[in-house]
Design a protein that fits this description.
- The complex is a heterodimer of chains A (about 280) and B (about 300).
- Chain A is mainly alpha-helical.
- Chain A has one domain.
- Chain A contains ten helices and no strands.
- Chain A is globular, with a radius of gyration of 20 Å.
- The two termini of chain A are about 20 Å apart.
- With about 300 residues, chain B is of the alpha/beta class.
- In chain B, strands 6-7-8-3-9-10 form a six-stranded mixed beta sheet, sandwiched between helices. A four-stranded antiparallel beta sheet of chain B has the order 2-1-4-5.
- Chain B contains eleven helices and 14 strands.
- The chains are: A mainly alpha (about 280), B alpha/beta (about 300).
């Protein structure tokens, strides 16, 4: 792999993101809502035992859960399908550049763009907290930002997998939005429904939760922020007692890493090695 | 320079390219003729390495399957309908220039060559069809690749832009580039190509020099001439005297069916007889008629 070509693609994707008004709008909304949540959260002295940076980070979890999966899934889903549909991918491939270089450059470029949005939201909130006198543990705030970045990477990977197997950008977007609904809206209800319908034990419910990257992020974030593991509910208590705080945290991190590596690896192999017919 | 041996491409049960073999020498201009769906574009995409295929394709002795990237570096490609990113002309050239590892001076030179210097800051979406094709041609010239591959480069251009692009291609052919292009226009093939092959349903059905192609097929062109009403009778007499018999008359317009090499001869005879020709045009045989001829005569 020629990393100069990868770098050219990274630069192009980053530049395209800045020119994409949807992406700019998303970044502005995410940053503005992060600041709004900061002020709403700071109007109360303490929420569930959090204060300062910790309190803001706790407020940001729901915002992250709403925004980041959507933008990462959709951005990933249209990344290759759109180029395939409008013919630019075929034209690009007529030049001395390989599919693996294109895939890698596009993924890193888009991931950096999403990370920039996350950094801007968390960064502005962090600056505002510091100006207002700070308080709380900044490392927890930073860890939430890092977990958000990992969540973005995992869902971008899923988005790329959708993209590799979609000939039309509209179809890819539809699948991405449906998956977002499954992960965010139906996810919790699904776990609850399955628990009741199939009479699942706590262990099975915990395993089921690991199949949803947004659930994994939620548990890891709460585990990072809260000194009290009861906040995690009965499943959390089970996991906490089984693996310990540190063990559970590393388990969740590993699961999130798998959520990045498995879809991304499969998408990479399918696009770069196996499928050449669709162009 | 280009060696193709038994290249075959299947899409499911459909054979888009069926055991195609031919060679193109360095500095030669080679045309692939054929109607829509003949397999021309698929064959070109196999040569570019953007489609997998059975058989062997070598560029400058490099096997395209084993040295895809190195082989692609030897090719400048002009697609039928170039699709660019949402960038300005100069941004597009810089982007592909960086992939081709060329410097700013070369990009400047290419801008000059394809006459787009005044449009560098125009968005590619604001460029006319002719300009887009020129930009695509400019990208193909960026790294001064020895091989130019053009997939029906003039199919979406008006007459002026078409003539303009053909002159440009001819210029680079004269300078020694190997040119492989597909077309469904016989006049283009005659103007540019040293050799041509005709494809149908994925197979080569004829390979010849372009001028012999018309002869071999016995193709007829139609010369349409507009004359003053008062000159019609004299013109008919002149044409009959010179052996042009397949003439139809519609108002003050004469239509003469001619063999490929007689096209200009009839016009010359009229001008020599001082008959005032108001307008004329030549209707080339369609690709369909070529195919019909090929099928009937079984070449």
């Amino acid at each position: 792999m020629d990393f100069r070509n990868v770098y050219i693609l990274i630069r192009k994707e980053a530049r395209d993101s800045v020119k994409n008004w949807w992406f700019v709008l998303y970044t502005i909304c995410f940053s503005a809502l992060a600041l709004l949540l900061l002020f709403l959260a700071s109007s109360r002295s303490e929420i569930a035992g959090f204060s300062g940076f910790g309190r803001t980070a706790a407020s940001l979890i729901n915002l992250v859960l709403l925004f980041i999966p959507l933008i990462a899934l959709v951005t990933g889903a249209i990344s290759i399908s759109n180029e395939r549909e409008n013919g630019t991918l075929s034209y690009l491939l007529s030049h001395p550049i390989t599919k693996s270089e294109i895939f890698t450059g596009k993924f890193i470029g888009l991931l950096l763009s999403i990370w920039f949005s996350i950094s801007l939201g968390f960064g502005l909130a962090g600056i505002a907290i510091s100006i207002r006198g700070g308080g709380g543990d900044i490392s927890k705030f930073l860890m939430t930002a890092v977990l958000s970045a990992i969540l973005a990477a995992s869902l971008l990977s899923v988005g790329f997998l959708i993209s590799v197997f979609s000939k039309k950008a509209a179809k890819a977007t539809g699948i991405a939005v449906f998956l977002w609904l499954v992960f965010i809206v139906i996810g919790d209800l699904g776990i609850m429904g399955s628990t009741v319908a199939m009479d699942l034990g706590i262990k099975q419910v915990f395993i089921l939760a690991l199949f949803n990257p947004t659930e994994v992020f939620k548990i890891a974030s709460v585990l990072t922020l809260s000194p009290r593991f009861e906040v995690l509910g009965p499943v959390g208590i089970y996991a906490f007692k089984t693996f310990g705080r540190e063990g559970l945290f590393y388990l969740l991190l590993s699961v999130m890493a798998l959520w990045i590596l498995i879809p991304l690896g499969y998408a990479f192999l399918s696009f770069s090695v196996l499928r050449r017919e669709e162009l | 320079m280009i060696d193709i041996r038994e290249a075959t491409k299947n899409f499911g049960d459909f054979k888009a390219v069926d055991k195609v073999s031919f060679s193109v020498k360095a500095g030669e201009a080679f045309a692939i003729l054929g109607p829509n769906g003949a397999g021309k574009s698929t064959l070109i995409r196999c040569i570019l390495g953007t489609l997998d295929f059975e058989g062997e394709i070598r560029l400058n002795n490099l096997d395209i399957k084993e040295n895809r990237k190195e082989a692609k570096a030897l090719i400048g490609y002009v697609p039928q309908e170039p699709q660019f990113y949402d960038m300005t002309t100069i941004e597009v050239l810089n982007f592909f220039g960086s992939i081709r590892r060329v410097n700013k001076e070369r990009i400047e030179r290419v801008l000059h060559l394809v006459g787009l210097k005044e449009h560098v800051f125009k968005s590619t979406s604001a460029l006319s069809g002719g300009m887009r094709q020129r930009l695509s041609f400019g990208i193909a010239l960026l790294s001064d690749s020895p091989v130019l591959i053009l997939d029906e480069p003039t199919s979406n251009l008006d007459a002026y832009a078409r003539a303009d692009l053909l002159r440009l291609i001819k210029k680079f052919k004269t300078e020694g580039k190997t040119v492989l292009f597909s077309s469904h226009r016989l006049d283009e093939v005659e103007f540019l190509a040293d050799r041509a092959l005709v494809m149908k349903s994925g197979k080569i059905i004829l390979e010849s020099t372009p001028h012999k192609l018309g002869e071999v097929l016995g193709l007829k062109s139609k010369l349409h001439i507009k004359l003053p009403q008062s000159s019609i009778k004299t013109a008919l007499d002149v044409l009959n005297e010179n052996g042009f018999n397949n003439i139809s008359l519609n108002g003050n317009k004469l239509s003469i069916e001619l063999s490929h090499k007689e096209r200009i001869l009839a016009l010359r005879k009229l001008l020599l007889a001082e008959i005032p020709v108001e307008d004329f045009n030549v209707e080339e045989p369609s690709m369909e008629s070529i195919m019909e001829e090929v099928q009937q005569n079984g070449l």
